[in-house]
Amino acid sequence: MENKVELPPHLRWPRQNYCGCNCNQNPAPAERRHGLAPGTLEILPELALNFIYGFIPVPPVSVVAPLACAAARRPKAGDTADRISALTDDILRRIVSRLPAKDGARTAALSSRWTGVWCSAPLVLVDAHFLPLRGEEGVRPPRRGALSRAVTNAFSAALAAHPGPFSFVSLTCAFLQAAAADRAVLARWFTLLATKGVKELVFVNRPWPVPGLRLPAALFSCASLRRLWLGAWVFPDTTKLPRGVSFPNLQELALGAIVMEDRDFEFLLAACPVLEVLSVIGSLERSHGRLASHSLKLAQFCMCMFQELTVVSTPCLERLFIWRCCWTQRRSPKVKIGHVPKLNMLGYLEPGVQILEIGNTVIKSGTSPSPRTTVPSVKILALHLHFNIRNEVKMLPSFLRCFPNAETLCIESKETLEPTGALNKKFWKETAPIECIQSHLKMLVLREFQGEQSELDFLMFVAENARVLEKMVLVMKQGYAAEREVAARFKALDSARWASGDSKLKALVARYPEFGGTVWCPTAGADPTFHDPFFCL
Predict the structure, then answer these.
(1) Structure pTM?
(2) Domain map (residue ranges) of the chain
(3) CA-CA distance, 236 to 217, in Å (whole number)?
(4) Which residue numbers delimit the FBD domain (predicted)?
C-alpha cells in the first residue's frame, strides 16, 4: 500500500477557514443546515437549500453561549452585596437584550423593576431557540408535526407578549401551508413585526415554496427594516399593492428560492431607495433580471435561472457576482452592462456562452475596443471557460479587451465531455495586444487546471506579454493523475520569456476534492468589506 503524502498547508487552496464563515469551503452536513430528511429533495433543491441555510446570518445571541467572566466567580465569604441591582436600567436593558428571548422573559419574574427592564429592552427573537437542545443549537424539525407546531406557537406567544422593538427576528422552523389558518398566522406576525419595529428579519418557509401561499402584503408595512432575508416563498403580487409602499430604511436584501415575476423584482428594487447589498440565491423562475438602483453597491446572483441579466443604471455599483446560474437553452443568454462607473469587481462571465453587451454594442470576436465597448473601472475580473471549446477561446480576447484596467484575472477552466477542438498555437501568436494583459495584469489565477495544451498556450501568451505580472497561480484538483504531463507544462512555462522578468509561476492543489477549483461563499460575496471574494490570494 502506498503511503499517502500530505501536502503542506501552503500548497493548499484555498486557505482553511479563509473567509471566516460557514460556507462551502468547509460544508456542514445537510441536516445541520436545513434539518430535512435525506433523500426527500432532488439534487438542485438540496444544493440551493444548503446555500440558503448556510447564508442565513448567525443570531446575535445563543442558547448555548458560555457565561464566563472574572466578575462571575464565587464571591468571598461574607460578601452578600447585590451589585446587579445597583446597575442602571440602561445597562440592565443591554444585558437582557443579549439573552435569548425565553431567558430574557424569565428575568421579569425577579421584580417589578425587572419587568419594566424586559419590556423596554430591544429583543432578539429566534424560533430555533425554542427547539429542544441536543448538546448544541436545536436541529430544525425534518417535517411538519407536533414539534414544528409547538415552536411556531411559542414564537407567536413571544412576539405578542413583548412590546418591542425587535432588533433581530429569525423564523426558519415553520412549515406553513396554503390554508386559512396559516394565512391568518402570517398576517398576524407581520402586523406585529411592523408595529413593533423589527430591524433585521430572517423568514424562511419549509421546505420549499408552497404554490398558492404568498407572503402577505403586510411585509411592506415593516418600514423599520434594515436587513431582510427571505427564503422559500412566493412573493406578493405587486400589482395589488397600494401605491407608495416601500422599505425606506432597507440596506441589505437576500432572496433565496423566491418565486417572483420580473415586474415584482423591479418593483422591489424601486421600493428600496437606500438598498446597498442584494443577494439572489436559487431563483425558481426563468427571468430577465434588471438592475436599476441609485444606491446599490453590491449584487450577487447564485444558481439563478436567467434569460438575460441587465445592469441598466447603477451609478454606485462596485461589485457584481454571477455564480453557477442556469441559462435558458432557447437562445444564448445575455449579460448587458450599462451605466456602472464604479464597478470594480465582476464575475463570473462566460465567453462564448453568454452574449456580452456593453452599452448598446454586442461584443463579438474581433470587436475593437473603444470607450463605448469598455468598462475601465473593473480591476478584478473572473471568468468560466472551457479551453477545449473553440468558440469560447476565440471570444476570450474580446472579453478581456472590454476591461482594459483589470489587475487580477481569475479563470475557472471547466471540463467538457464534448470538446470541439482546441485552437492551434498560431491563434495566440497572432492575437493583437490586449491592454489589460500588457499593462495592468498583476495576478492570474487559473483554477481546475487540466494540463491541456490549449491552457498552456494561453498561459504562455500571458507570461510573454504581461509586463507587470507579479504572480501566476495554477490550482489543480486533488488526485490529479497526469503528474508527468503537468511537470512538463510547468517546465515549459518556467522557461518562457517572461515579460515581467523571472518566472512568476506557483502551483497549488485544491483543498476539497468535491469542489475542485471552484468555490463560492455567498456570505463573503455579500460582504462589501471582504477584499477577495474570488479567493485569489
Answers:
(1) 0.89
(2) 89-120, 122-133+142-275
(3) 6
(4) 435-508
